[in-house]
Amino acid sequence: EAQVTQNPRYLITVTGKKLTVTCSQNMNHEYMSWYRQDPGLGLRQIYYSMNVEVTDKGDVPEGYKVSRKEKRNFPLILESPSPNQTSLYFCASRNGLGWSSLHFGNGTRLTVT
Amino acid sequence: GQQVMQIPQYQHVQEGEDFTTYCNSSTTLSNIQWYKQRPGGHPVFLIQLVKSGEVKKQKRLTFQFGEAKKNSSLHITATQTTDVGTYFCAGPGGPRSGGGADGLTFGKGTHLIIQP
After folding, report:
1. Using CB atoms within 10 A as the burial measure, which of A74, A75, B10, B69 is most buried?
2. Shortest CA distance from B1: residue in chain A
């Protein structure tokens, strides 16, 4: 089954404790992206990657890092999480042709205390 | 940079009534996409519009792309409880990019609440 898999689904952590949210897709998509969703603010892009070893900032990249060492994986790293990063995070992928549709993972709800 | 505005933010309807959400962009869009997110779920792609003035239908859902390719609408006829959720429009580019980035900018969504 074609899918985008995120882990974990829920995560509670404390300020400053490094964490990684994993994302994997099995559709051989070139493009992958991370979004955060907050009430009243909709979906905002954090980082995206056009292909292996190619990443770029989205609209709200501060406090986040990403890497794309393999085509299927695109982890989101919070080196020193802060409470304002409490949010619902979605990973998404699409193929690299034009503006094809995004396939989203099930989301990771992160709480930073 | 490019912004996508979506109204209304919330819409309460009685089951069986119609529903419309509107999307407006500050710049001309090469295409616009619509997504639906059920409560507790993730956004799911519904449709993409590319041509000026394009109209597409999916059962009770009708999608339109404006002639100037700066606005779009989603209309649902005779809503059902299964239509509950948040509907997002999305266009290429982002606030930092001026339309040239490789991401999608999402509207803030319209929450559809249906009262039986």
Report:
1. A74
2. A59
* Facing B106 at nearest CB: one of A42, A105, A106: A42
Residue identified by tokens 């490094």 is A18
- In whole angstroms, give the CA distance from residue A3 to residue A6: 10
What does the pLDDT look like over A49-105, one tens digit per residue?
999 999 999 989 999 999 999 999 999 999 999 999 999 999 999 987 677 899 999
Residues of chain A contacting B31 with CB distance shorter than 8 Å: 99
CA-based nearest residue in chain B for residue A40: B108
Bridge pairing between strands A42-51 and B19-25: unpaired
Q: How far apart are the first and last CA of chain B?
A: 41
Question: Residues A56, A50: contact at Cβ < 8 Å?
Answer: yes
Which of A1, A102, A8, A55 minimizes the C-alpha distance to B43?
A102
User: Using the beta-carbon criterion (under 8 Å), do B42 and A105 form an inter-chain contact?
Assistant: yes
Amino acid at A77: I
One-letter amino acid at B11 equals Q
Tokens standing for residue B107: 């509207």
What is the DSSP track for chain B? ---EEEE-SEEEEETTS-EEEEEEESS--S-EEEEEE-TTS--EEEEEE-STT-EEEETTEEEEE-TTSSEEEEEESS--GGG-EEEEEEEES-TTTTT-SSSEEEP--EEEEEE-
How close, in Å, is residue A95 to chain B by CA atoms?
12
